[in-house]
Amino acid sequence: MLRSAAVALLFAAAFPLAVSAQGLDAAATPLEITVSQLGGSHLVLSATRDGVPVPPDELRSMLREQVAQLFFEVPAAEAPTLDVGFSPAQDGGWTISLARGGAAASDAQVRITVDGEEPQIATGDTYHLPPLADGIHEIKVHLYTADGQAYLSSGSFVGRRLVVLQSGGNASLANPTVFEGAIAGGKLAAGSDTLTTRQGTATELRFTSDAELELHLHGYDIEADIWDSDPVSLLFDASIPGRFPMESHGGAGESVILYLEVYP
Question: Domains in the chain: how many in total?
């Protein structure tokens, strides 16, 4: 959880950043943390206190404490639920439907984040997202406590994360054909490794993963990170005919997860 959640929430801002070391020493001297990227979503962290390097074990301990404050873990049987739907709106934006259920507190918040920008709080059963420019966008819709902690159910965020490719607006993305798959060990856990669809069909690929990976759908050049704590959906218009591999990067290296065949 430390790798995935820290990457997803702690390190969305610019670097370096300063965090409190309270609990590690009485002075609570701020640490300067520097993050460098090895490749994909793999990060290397280092820190100094008053110019002196902080031992890695001490840094890991401090980060675990900081990360733990960001989440509210709930057993699956007691967890709240949030069913999220996306549909194109008449103005070219998106209508996001929000169905809360389970044991969610009455003051629980739904936070919607687009491309890492400042999150917006949705209070009703629907939320209107203004039109997005053509290109690839990431939309996160997650449930939070009133204190700003992200709900976790059995280690996974409550809500949904969508990576969408828009070209010429989003009208062609209504009522997609949905394919679902679980990735284990860098491969599909079950089912065929070839998906077929027709050209011009709105297509949604939904994945869970047992490890942190970067997914890359060739041909459409859609990339998305996936973690064990945060499944992802890829939504696009299958407008390009052909046979395209989807590869995973990270973990054991690069491998083909599946092939997408788009027929004219």
Answer: 3
